[in-house]
Amino acid sequence: MYNVRKDVYSVRMTRDHILSAAKVVLEREGIDGLTIRKVAQRAELSPMALYRHFADKDALLNALMEDGMSAWENIVRSIRAHDPLEWLLAIADAHLDFALTQPHRYDAAFFLPAPAARRFPDDFAAGRSPAIAMVMARVDQAKAEGRLCDRPTLEIALALVAAGHGFVSMHRANRFAGEKQFKALYRAAQRLLLDSLKPSRESK
Amino acid sequence: MYNVRKDVYSVRMTRDHILSAAKVVLEREGIDGLTIRKVAQRAELSPMALYRHFADKDALLNALMEDGMSAWENIVRSIRAHDPLEWLLAIADAHLDFALTQPHRYDAAFFLPAPAARRFPDDFAAGRSPAIAMVMARVDQAKAEGRLCDRPTLEIALALVAAGHGFVSMHRANRFAGEKQFKALYRAAQRLLLDSLKPSRESK
DNA sequence: AATCGATGTGTACAACGTACGCAAGGATGT
DNA sequence: ACATCCTTGCGTACGTTGTACACATCGATT
User: How far is the CA of B135 from the C1' of D8 (A)?
Assistant: First the structure.
């Protein structure tokens, strides 16, 4: 009835198998279009079979969030610019590209809530995400070269990232006149911010 | 069966009546917790009665989006700072306050998608929202006084707003260590950006 | 061959959005 | 006063969703 797979009765590869199916469904239908039943069908399993591997739908969504986030981290890691300011420009462009070319994966990575339990001790930090850490490293480097203003690294990094994500968030909510306008304003704003965060020339 | 109101069989106040009920449900249960049935119950109407006044659930959500947005516009309008830079700081704080004290209303205002039909001609502009327009007016004023860098007004305004919204968006997705950290970083980043957007002193 | 834990299935239920047809109120014209 | 009609509300019903629960079946272990 559920078009069940007859091959192996499974060797613990099932969780990954389900996750792949979920990624396909996510890519095609978006977060809201992803249902347990659709994932099950694509995985050739009965809907209830998923519950042996994920506590509930939220757990599955959380796995997709982590997958999306690690895809994003790989993109960030692969940026090759030597100059730290160029690197920061490149990551801004990569962010935009990720949001536009893999929209549902982006949504999973950035919009799905992290499980509350996973939150950090409290006086310590959003700078825990590997992606933010990589940005911070470049900000530090630029600061060391005297090419960014002398402000807390975390604040600079987060301001840039939050601005980018804010733009995407507004775009998702249909707040721009179209993708064209969104792209143009996104890029202009990122360049503006990066420029503005350079040290004031008076100090020399 | 649905605990119906026996009073007036209605004098066209019903749409507003439903909307009020929806606002209460939104405030208590959030966007995801809002269902047609719950709104109907609170309005003392049958679920199907709502469909005489709203085409579907999305139409109701859209009304809530507009309500939230106009609440936000009123907040912005009521900011009293004379100095444009102080005004821009005040709106940043008001944004944070709105997000924290009326979270579900904020979500409705900023996260719910605008109906696609309502999008603008295309080369023209996100600066159409009254809230953005008010920010732009102050940015212009500050620029005229030589107290902000000479960059396109829309870009400056959007960079500030998008950064703020991006922070909120990340907070909603549980990306900070807690509300305390979120508030601190939000404020620090907004001050950093506002500082950075001042004109470079070399130009004098 | 008997047992057992891990994995998969089928059925069932409550909650959801909403299509459809009908009923009942208020307004209007006579 | 009555008949007409439009507006508004209701009840029922269907398909879809997440998932609780009881049962079945596999592979491994004894």
Answer: 43
Specify the DSSP element, H or E, that contains A24: helix A14-33
One-letter amino acid identity for B149?
C
Assess whether A151 and A177 both reside in one domain: yes
Closest CA to A61 of A16, A17, A13, A22: A22
> Minimal Cα–Cα distance from A128 to chain B, Å?
9
Which one, of B161, B54, B61, lies nearest residue A32 by Cα? B61
Please state whether the predicted TM-score (pTM) of the whole model is above 0.90: yes
B122: left (phi over 0), alpha (psi -120 to 50) or beta: left
> What is the number of domains present in chain B?
2
CA–CA gap between residue B178 and residue B42 (Å, rounded): 33
**What is the number of other CB atoms lying within 10 angstroms of the CB of residue A67?**
18
Q: Which of B129, B170, B174 lies at the smallest CB-CB distance from A116?
A: B174
Contact B34, B21 (CB under 8 A): no
- With an 8 Å Cβ cutoff, is A156 touching chain B? yes
d(CA B125, CA B72) in angstroms, rounded, equals 20
Nearest CA to B17 among B57, B63, B66, B70? Answer: B63
Structure tokens at A179: 């993708």
- For A73-125, how does the pLDDT look when each residue is reduced to its tens digit (9 = 90+)? 999 999 999 999 999 999 999 999 999 999 999 999 999 999 976 555 554 45
> Are residues A134 and A190 both part of a single domain?
yes
Residue B138 maps to which CATH number?
1.10.357.10
